[in-house]
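Action item from last week, closing it out:
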Amino acid sequence: MTYFLRALREAAKSWPLLMAALLCSAGVAALWGANIAALFPIIEVTLKGDSLQSWNERRVEEARGRATRARDKAADLERQLDTGSPSDKELAATRSRIDALRLAVQGDEAIAYSGERLAPWLDRLLPTDPFQTVLVVVAFVVISTFAKHVLLMGSTMLVSWVAMSITRNIRIKVFDKALALDRAQFMRHGSAGFMAQVTGTSEMLASGITSVYGGAITEPLKIIACLGCAMMVSWRLTLACLMLAPLVGFLMVWLNRRIRNISKNILARSRGFHHVLLEALNNVLTVQAYTMEDFERERFRTCTGDMMRTGMWHAFYFALANPITEILGMGMVATSIAVGAWLVINQQTQMFGITMTDQPMTVPGIMIFFGFLIGASDPVRKLSGVITGLNVGMVGAQTLYPLLDTPSKLSETPHPRCLPSPHQEIRLENVSFSYDGIDTVLKDVNLSIAFGERVAIVGPNGGGKSTLVNVICRFYDPTKGRVLLDGVPLTDLALHDLRRRIAMVTQQTELFNESIHYNIRYGRWDATDEEIEEAARQAHAHEFIADFPDGYRTMVGPNGFRLSGGQRQRISLARAFLRNAEILVLDEATSQIDVESERLIHQALAAYVENRTVIMITHRASTLALADAIVEVEHGRVQKRPARQHQAA
């Protein structure tokens, strides 16, 4: 509940819109009760051929007469008590009777007072002809119904705008969090987890906010308006009709807990669903190459079947909410019919010794009372959907906000230091690193790389080569030790300042489903078309790009599937060349390039790497020829030696 209240507080920042929505809801509730109350003059007065003005005058006179008689009766009883010697039982009964008479006097005087205040308005607004009065009342009901729906639509749109704004902000925050998290925490959630949060979970939160600021305000106000009017007719009878309310409240609490648990299960199933879907589609070539289509189909059918079963339980409890609230509504109506009919037929004011009304009820009066209770039963029924939406929103908030509150392990210093460009040295001091806190990937690494030095990192797979590069680029922070740039720890630099100094080309080339021009320009967004073409020429990509009908505007497809592996890698190289960074990181950057292209690219690299620090993970002899020094990484241990010694060895 704490996280959901946090979401509501964020929504409350749009208080002018919510206040407008609240006023609309209050108007809807007032018109809801007024529509029912407007039927009273038709039933009570006009159909008898009387006018509201004469009815009101007669009602005032009758109330004054009843008050006078009750006052006189109470005075007689007081005199009897003063002159007689009643027993304790008789004294108590007489006092009770006197109190009842005094309450009746107060009620009749209130009726007379309201009638007197109402008289000028009736004379001014309503005709004296009964049929014309019917037409006025009918016109009022039609106009107020239209106004009610206009206000209802206004309230819905205002609340929806606030809810969607909150949802958009939440999605932006989740996306920002995904980009800001260190790689370890990102992989713990995975792309599927973040996708589920951005889509389904955000929608759940929006549903909860809409329920609170929409239905959770409008529907209770309708109920209050109708029950308030019903209490004006007979508050005792109204309370009698609400006898089932505690039972229904208990059932709703139980139902809320069930819906909340089911919603949590739906979220968990949704993450599994996205995981299976993305994993199979992102690796579709492997799936097809190893003829695992049937296996993946079965996985997908299993996870969707689990989602369906959980969804059916959710639908069951959601559907169960309506009957429970219907019980309250029908219980109110049934009780009012039974009790009201007995009071009207027998012209009584009490039932089972309990006073229900001060005066015997008339048929039109009890019908209006029925109308108010029926008017209250409809919003009670709708309130079940509101409560369900509230539970769904709470589950969404409990999932989203802990993720948003997760701090990145790559914390930014509040006062970052600035270093001149280019740098002078990268140094690792006693650096150790472990992904899980158990297996150490790097062990007490001490390494220095001077500016302009070209270093090749070699070693067996799993030895820690990529981890070493990731620590230097600060995709991870060391478990132990420090990485320094010109003597300043990387943790004292702004991440943006550090990363702007680096251009990277990895073995697993990542391209966007955009044009070639877009993917190369990603290296430096303010680059001109001439600079983009020059970078492509340096990477020997211009030749094959020019052969495409659309040239640089050619769409590469998801992750560049329309291009060959070598073409993708050359576009990635062009992107790195365009960045013109002082540190170039190549992780098997020529692994998918043919021999001739590799020769040309190495010529370009030989010219490009001048006055740059180059860190290369490679096994190719042609790439090693570019290196000034070789860093051997094996089982987490690092040893650096000149390239000549490595070649001699």
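Closing note: DSSP finds 20 helices and twelve strands in the chain.
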